[in-house]
Structure formats: structure tokens, C-alpha cells
Amino acid sequence: MLDTLKRYLRYTSWPILASVVALMTLGVLAIRASEQADPDMTGFAAKQMAFAGAGIVVFIAATSFPYARLGRLAYPLFGATLVLLVAVFYLPDVRGSHRWIDLKVVRFQPSELAKLTFIILLAWYLRYGDHYRRLGGLIIPFLLTLVPMGLILKEPDLGTALLFLPTLYFMLFLAGAKLRHLLTIVGLGTLVVLLPVPRGVDAETFQTQRDGGRFETVQLGPVKLFSVDRSLPWRQQPEVPAAYCRFQIGEGRVFDLQPLSLRVLKGHQSRRIEGWLRQNDPRIEQGKGYQLSQSKIVLGAGKLTGRGEWGDADATFRMLPDDHTDFIYSVVGGQWGFLGCLFVLALYGVIFVFGVEIAVLTYDPFGRLLAVGVLALLLSQVVINVGMTMGLMPITGMTLPLVSYGGSSLVVNCAALGLLVNIGQRRPILLGRRPFEYGERGEKPPAPYGPLAD
Amino acid sequence: MYKRRIKIFLGLVAVVFAVMIARLGYLQILRGDDYRLQAEEALQKYELLPARRGRILDRTGEFVLAQDEACTDLCLHYRFLTADEKWILAQQKRIRKQEHVSLDEAGKIYQDRARRTWRVVEEQARERGVDLPATIEEIVRRVERIRAGRDYDVREQNQEHPVICALDNETAVRLKPQLEGTIGLALRSTHKRVHPFGDLACHVIGMTGRVWAEDLEERNLTAADEPDWLERLRRNYQPWDTIGRRGVEAMCENVLRGVRGSRRLKRIGSGVQVLEEVPAQHGHDVHLTLDLRLQQEGVAQLQKGGYTGCVVILSVPLGEVLALVSVPTFDLNRYSQDYEILAEETLYLPLLHRAVGRRYSPGSTIKPLMALAGLGTGAISEHTTFTCQGSFDPRYPDRFRCWNRSGHGSEDLRAALRDSCDVYFYHVGQLLGLDKAAPWLDRFGYGDLPGTGLPDERAGLVPTVDWMRRHGRTAELRGEARLEGIGQGVIEATPLHVANGIATIARGGKFLSPVLVLEGAPPRVSRDLGINPSHLRAVREGMFQVVNEPGATAYKAFFGDGVERLPFKVCGKTGTAQVAPQRIDSDGNGRITVQDRIARTGDMLWFIGYAPAEDPKVAFAVVLEYVQEGGGGRNAAPIAREMLRLCHRLGYLD
User: Fold this and answer.
1) Domain boundary at B194, B210, B228, which?
2) Which residue has the higher pLDDT, A398 or B588?
3) How far apart are CA B161 and CA B136, in angstroms?
4) Are residues A176 and A311 in the same domain?
5) What are the tens digits of pLDDT across the range B115-167?
6) Is it the case that residue B239 has pLDDT exceeding 50?
7) B235 occurs within a structural domain
8) In this predicted structure, what is the pLDDT of residue A449?
9) Which residues in chain A have their CB less than 8 angstroms from residue B19's CB?
10) In the prediction, which pLDDT does A317 show?
């Protein structure tokens, strides 16, 4: 028993655990900062602390059993997740979206759970064989992705849904799928997303936009192309939706040629994308891009070392909506400046570096893919969230793992990172180089046993 | 392969992190100061300070005719009006926090408070006869219009909007404790236009109202294109601003309105701090040239006789309008409540500013002008005589009759004016012809707007041959010329036109456009008509005889039995214009035709003139509409007499 504990402690990846705790602590502090800025908010930091405690417990729990057993549960777990994802649609909605299951004490978000069961399933599915090295073999992994993704997209929760694609790609890539195939699929996807589709503009809207400013027209045979006169002061410029162009054939209806994705997305989603694409347009900053421009203000105003003596910090934080959840990184930036932001990224960096080490040192295929999946999931979340707070990505509802306020996300991420550490604990023992095996071309010789063998 | 790929993965992480760090460096280090500035700017907000509208006073400055008075509006939050779910939820959460209850209970408390709000509002609406649904609909419509074309929330959506306006102080004080335990309800101090004299000079003062987009388009008021947006906000009209709709309120809008002030505030924590304040420039007062006592007397005189009509008094030397009475009147303080009734009164037209906005046939009051035209063009001389046998052509006694069927016999100009002989002036009209008479009448201002600048003004109608041709009446040219000689037929003018024409004669042939306000009046027209003094003298003598010679048309009114004599001499001219009866659209086809029911019949009775005869100080015109029995001398002249008596007492004749 004592021996097991000793070995447990010895093979635990302490840098990862330390980073996890540090990130959660920073999260609580940042949430407290945003809470103090807004007198209408109370109790968030305290609750987050409770979540963090639960996170630690889950983290330890996730390291306390041989991870390989999880593989056998992959299909039942995934099935249960799908059931929950369907179930949310039969539960009352919260502000128009079906994301949560109310457990009275806490609200649970099945889509967060889906992230984890999805990578377990995928790692389990891809662990042997090389069928995915053929284009046809990619069909099943994609199907396994699209089903939960579609359900989550329907909630609607665009951010979480979009997370599945990069995760899938990283796992396929590291499992050895052909780059050619992967790139072909990306290319086709991009074409579909950007596919120009005409959309009729109703006459009244067109007229008011016309009255609002000047359209310049170019006649190309029977087709008349419109472009907005950008020389006007922006207030007088007509507001035209994001589109490739606006045209009219003969004297008929006026059409906007828009990318397919903008047609499919919900109104607020395409507005956010537009707000992101036209970031420096003051007209957009007041409307579609308001949250983004506020986020950049909060982030940028932190300067090098944070708020310091800057007295308006609280009032500025207050003007940023969702500052304790999706935009916590902006608060980190406003509170502790560039150095604080760098520190947070460095902590994630530590997790990646030591996580990759685990993924490399593990020889079990399921373990490898699971480790990669956890890392890919984490990377996608960090990039999408941090990217959106600083205007590198469009705004999608996405938490910053371990830092943002929210129990489901925190617990699930802790569980995922716990599994990562778990894999590390069960890697093969490397006592040293085997005699006379010098490991040509950097290859390390295989070892027969893991430190915490089953 | 796996290891190479995992290295690529780690490399990708490095690249992505490098990009993010670079972006962080750009945002926080390179542009950090910018963003801090932007943050400060975003924290600032602006508040507009209302400007008080100027007062309207009479010429003495003693009597205030219109002024802004503090009052209170009962306002409802826009999101409460539209039952915005998000807002309601936020309110419930706030209640939950304040009262430390569950969200369900907070919901109940919210319902309770909302009910109490509606109870207060509905009670007030009932008391004041406010159509609540219509008001709310209007508010929503306006805010929607502001919001149109924007996909973000506008300020108006987060504001309280007045639902019940102009509560007096007493009610406001009484309501204040009732606000406890309501939601979305606020009392806002504001001001309303108060008219201490109610209906006196109501047409001249005009009303004010909330500005509409249409007002701005109509009057080109959106023009103030200041480069500074705050300055624009201060100067330009905003929804809920007051604008003058009619009368002097509209005419002197720019003088009265003033410029809003503004206040730059900064949000700090839960409160605000004032950074900068630009005080409001209140509107300037406007002094009318009207003397309220004359105005009052004019209304009293017309109402005593039960007449509808006008009294106009002009000061001769300056062309100032001393009285501009139009009856029936309406109470300006109750205008908005009474609007429906007033607007539907199509028979007596209480909203019509008759003195400048209704054209009447001038009847015999045009004769002095025709005489001057005839003399000026050489068509007649002072001594030209025509014989009156009761009609223009004795062979046709029923065509172009004189009012005196038995005829006046042979008369010269003075006698013709004294007796108001129609036959004489048929001749004058015919000798002149329309095209020679028209320039003369235009010189007296008949063709233009009366010229005070009131928006209610109408131009007179002076027919020319060309006009007749355009209206397909070339066959009647000669007849029309004769009729014009006695002021019947096509020719029409407002009472102010007629009064100013007579003032021009009294002034010795100098035309001045009348002036109604001492400030902000339009540029005045002043022209010397170059009338031969002997012609003037002849006409003025004729007009003197009208009043002062026994048997003349107005003699009885000034020198009859039981009439207290005036201590000065008056020159005048009576008129009795026969007009078509007024019909109302009884068959409801939207047009007035001969099939429609006759509502009012009778003559338009005039008495115009000036006093004192030797050194004229005031000119006047009195019109009575649709009088069944009587004539200008019998009905209108006594009113003028009493007005002159008051003018004398007030010192306007000195």
C-alpha cells in the first residue's frame, strides 16, 4: 500500500499538476477581480473555489485507476453522453439555448462531458489498425465526430461544437492518417464554407440603405454591381451585411452574394463573425463588434504590468460582458498586464511540454492517442478562447480551460488532465539505456513494463 | 512517424503561442496607452441639459402670453413597456439580491410591483383622459424608428419615456410616495407650455408640440451640421423636443428655442463624476406688437354680438399690429385634449387664423384702392362723374345693380365713396380693366402674403387677364373687371391685407409690411407708392365723409342716438360683401358641391378705416362673417368705434 503510494507520487507529473493548480488559482483571482469591479456580481469567486476543489478531487480520481480500463468503457460512455445531449432538448431552455441539465445544486453541461468521452472513444477506435490511412477509413471517425457536434451545434453552442474538428484532426494526424487525405478534406470544407450563395435583399431594406448613403454602381452587361461609397463619414455609410458583393440583374431583385456559412449560422453568430472581420470599423465596434472591442480595451489597457494605480480599471472591467466566463483572459490581461498573460500561457506551455513527453514515452497505442487527444482538446480551447479575446478569432462561446468561471468545464478539464497524468504514471520504466543499445537516430529502446503496472 | 508528428504538434503549439504572444505584445505594450485612453473615453457619458423655451409677451412686456412652467412627467421604462424578458429577468435577479429571496419569489415580487405600476399609471391616465394604449404604441413606434437599421441597442431603449405628461406639482408630490414598491416607473421634472390668458391671441401665439421627423424635413431644420457631435446633439432636435407648430411659436422658433447644455460624466464604480459642464442657453423672450388690452376688447366685442370674424388694428406710423383678433378662439392650455373636437369643427373652424389665413371678398372696402388706381392711371379724375340709376346699364336693371336700387344720381368720386355707389365703381373697374387694376392692388400688398411672417398666412388673390385665361373664364373679362371695382367676384384678401392697404393710404402712400413681433421678424418691405397727394386727399375726404356726413353709410354708427361721441375724427369705409353660402359636406363624398347642405348664409360685413382723420395713428379693419341682417355700417362700424375708443384711452392716438 505504502509502496503503491510512493510509486504513485514518484511517477506523477508534478509540473502538470502544479500548472493545473496555478491556473485554477489565477482563475479564482481573476474572477474575484471581475466580481469586485461589478457590484451586481457576488459569490462567483467563492463558487469557483468550490469548483476548483471538486476539480482537484476529480483530477486525483482520474489518476487512481489504470486508464486502460476506460477504453473498454468508451462506447457505453459515449452512448450515455449522446443520450444526455439529446435529453437537453427535452429540458427547459435557459435564455433560448438547451445546454444545461439542472441538478438543483449545480447546472451540468453535457457538451463539456462530450469533449472527454469523445476523445476516449476516438482513441479507443483508432488504437489499432491502419484503416484510417485510406480515405474511406476516415468516414467512421468523421461520423463519430459529426454526431455529437451536430447535437451541440443545435443547442446552440457553436464554440464547443467547433472544438471537435481540430481535436479530431490532431488525433488523426498523430495516429498516422495521411496528410494528403486530411488536407483534401480541409480544402473541401473550406470550399463549402465559402461557397457563394445569393440572398435576396428585400426592397425596403435596400431602399433605407440607399437613403442612408451612397452606393456606387458598376454595370456589367445586364448585371449591376453595387459598392458602398467608403469615402462618406461612417455614420452616413449604409450598413450592408458581410457579402462578397451585391448585385442586381436587370431591374429585378437585388441580391447579396454571401458565403454559405453565413447563411447557415444563426443571426448572432454571423453578426459576431462580421464584428470580427471588420474590427476597426467604429460603426461595427458599437454594435456587432462591441464585446470584442471592449475585450481588446480591457486587455490592452493592462499594459505591461497590469492595472497598478490605474483607478478606472474596475469601471472598465464592468463594461465587458461575460468577463468572468468567456472573457476571463481579458481580465487577466487587465489585472496583471502582459506579464500576467504571458504567465498564463507559460503554464499552458508547461502542460503541453510535459504532456507531449508523456505521449512520447508511452507505448500503449490507446494511451498515446488519449494523451494526444487531451492535449489537442486543451490546445484548441486555449487557442480559440485566447484568440477570440484578442481579436485573432471570431467570438464563439468558449471557456478558457481551468481559468474561466464554470463548474462543468473545470471538472471535465481536470478529469482530462488527470487522465493525461494517469497515462504518464503507467508509462514503461526507463532505468537507463540498455546495454549496447545507443538508440540510433534518437530512437529510444522499448521497455517492457510500466511503473504502475496493471 | 509518430514521433515526428508529435514534434510537429509541439512545433505548432510553439508557433501558435508565438502568434498569441506577439498579438499580446501589440495590444498591451505597443497600444496599451491607446487602449487606456479608449477605456477612459468609453467610461465617459454625456447628459443633455434642457434649455427653457423663451416666453412670449405682449408689447408692454407686462403680460406673459406663453411661458415654460416646471411640471412633472410620469415616465415608464421602455423595456417595461415592451415587457422585455431579459430586462424583467435582470430586475428579478436584482430583487432576489436585495430581498434575499429565491428567484421564484423575486418573480412574484416583480409581478406585484408591475401591477402596482400599472395601477398608478392607469389611475392617472383615467383622471387626465389620456389614451394609454395609443401613447404607448406611439413611444414604441418612435423608438423602433430610432433603432431601425442598427443592430445594437439604442439609448432610448434603456430610458424612461413620458407616458403621462405635465402633472402639476401637487400631484407629483402626492405620487412620490406611491412610487415605493413599483417598478419601471419614474417621475421626471420637465416643463410645459403654459398660457396664462388661455384663448387670448391663441392663433397668434400658436401651439407647440413634440417634434416629428416630418417637421424637420418640412422646415429644413436638420441642417445644423456641426463638426463636433456633442455640439450637434445640443443644437439639433432630438425626439421628444418641443417645436413651435403654428403662429409665433413656429415663426420665432429659433429665437425661442435656445440651445441645450451638456454635461460630461464619468462612470466611477456605481456612481458618476461630473467632468465638464456646458450650461444650457435658454431661449430668448419674444415681445409681440400686440396690446393685450386691445386684443381682449376685440374678442369681447365680437363675442358680445355673437359674431365670428376678425378685428385688425395697425399702428399707422410703424406698421405694427396692435390687435389681431380672430373669433372663434380655442384654449391653448387645453389644445392637446381638445384637439379632436377642434379639428372636427368644420363649420366654425376655430383653429383657423382668420385674420391672416382666410381670404374674404373685400366688398366695398376695395373702393378707396380702386379710386386711387383709377386716378393714378388716369382712367378717372377727381371730378369725373357717373350717373347711377340703380344699375350699371339702365336697360338691364337686374344686372350689375347698385345696392341702392333707386340710384344715387350723378356723383363724383367723393360722393361715390361716401355713398359707396356701386355703379360708379363698376365704371371705374371697367375703365381700368383687370390688368391695370392688378398692379395697383399688388402695390398695396394684396397679391403677396400679408407679411408678418406667420406660417398661417395666405396670399391674397388678385385676378389678371392671364389668371382668367388660365381658369377658363375669358368670356367674363369685362364683367369681372366691373365686379372687381366693388370688391366682389374673384378678388379676395385677408383682413390684414385690407387693414394694411388702408394703413398705406393713411400713411400717405407709403407701404410697410406689417410687423407682429419686435424680435426675430422677417425683413420688412417698405416702398413709397408715389401716389399723387391730391388723389390721396380726394380719397381720404371721401372716407372722411363716410363717417362724418349725415346719411353716409357709417354716420349712424358714430353719431347716432345714444352713441357717445369720439373725441377725434375717423375716416372709414363700410363693406357688405355678398358671398356664396357655406356648405358642409353633407353627402360625405369629400367635396363641397351645390348638392351639399347649406350651413351658413349671409354677408361678410366690413368696416375699415383709420383715425384720427387729420393725423392718422391707427388703421383698422373689422370683418363679420355670414351676418344675415344688416350691413357694414350697422354691425361692423360700432365694433370699430369701441376699439378706437379704447385705442384713444390707451394713448395710441396721441
Assistant:
1) B194
2) A398
3) 9
4) yes
5) 999 998 998 888 888 888 888 888 888 788 777 766 667 777 888 888 888 78
6) yes
7) no
8) 43
9) 392
10) 86
Q: Contact B33/A39, CB-based, under 8 Å?
A: no
Number of structural domains chain A divides into = 2
- Interchain CB distance below 8 Å, A342 and B24: yes
Residue A367 lies in a domain: yes
* A445 lies in some domain: no
Asked, for residue B229, whether it belongs to a domain, the answer is: no
Position A208 scores a pLDDT of: 66
Counts of helices then strands in chain B (DSSP H, E): 25, 21
| Residue B11 resides in a domain | no
Sign, CA dihedral A382-A383-A385-A387, equals positive
Check whether residue A418 and residue A309 sit in a common domain.
yes
Are A124 and A201 part of one and the same domain?
Answer: no
Chain A's closest residue to B89, CA to CA, is A95
* Residue B363 lies in domain: 292-650
* Same domain assignment for residues A101 and A171: yes
Residues A30 and A144 in one domain: yes
Say yes or no: A83 and A229 in one domain.
no
| Closest Cβ opposite residue A352 in set B10, B39, B150 | B10
Instruction: Count CB atoms within 10 A of the CB of residue B395.
Output: 7
**Structural domain count, chain B:** 2
Residues B201-220 as b or e (16 or more Cβ within 10 Å = b): bbbbbbbbbbbeeebbeebe
Asked if residue B451 has pLDDT above 80, the reply is: yes
- Domain encompassing residue A153: 2-194+291-431
> Which of B29, B94, B266 is nearest residue A338 as measured by Cβ atoms?
B29
Which pLDDT does position B584 carry in this prediction?
A: 82
Instruction: Give per-residue pLDDT as tens, A303-329.
Output: 898 888 887 888 888 888 888 889 999
On whether any CB of chain A is under 8 Å from the CB of B399, the answer is no
pLDDT top residue among A116 and B585: A116
CA distances (Å), B5 to each of A147, A178, A351, in order? 27, 11, 18
Tens of pLDDT, residues B512-571: 999 999 876 677 888 888 899 999 999 999 999 999 999 888 999 999 888 899 999 999
Contact B396/A at CB under 8 A: no
Three cell numbers, residue B605? 360685413
Q: Which of A231, A265, A299 is the last residue of a domain?
A: A265
Same domain, A92 and A241: no
Strand partners, A326: none
> For residues A281, A285, A288 and A289, what is the CA-based torsion angle, rounded to 10 degrees?
100
Cβ within 8 Å, pair A392-B23: yes
CATH code for position B501: 3.40.710.10
A273 CA to chain B: closest CA distance, Å?
Answer: 14
Q: Among B194, B212, B247, give the residue marking a domain's end.
A: B194
Residues contacting residue B331 through CB under 8 Å, at least 6 positions apart: B195, B198, B199, B202, B338
Which chain B residue has the Cα nearest residue A236?
A: B149
Q: Is A57 part of a structural domain of the chain?
A: yes
For residues A116 and A235, state if they share a domain: no
d(CA A319, CA A51): 26
pLDDT band at B573 (very low <50, low <70, confident <90, very high): very high
Residue B566 lies in a domain: yes
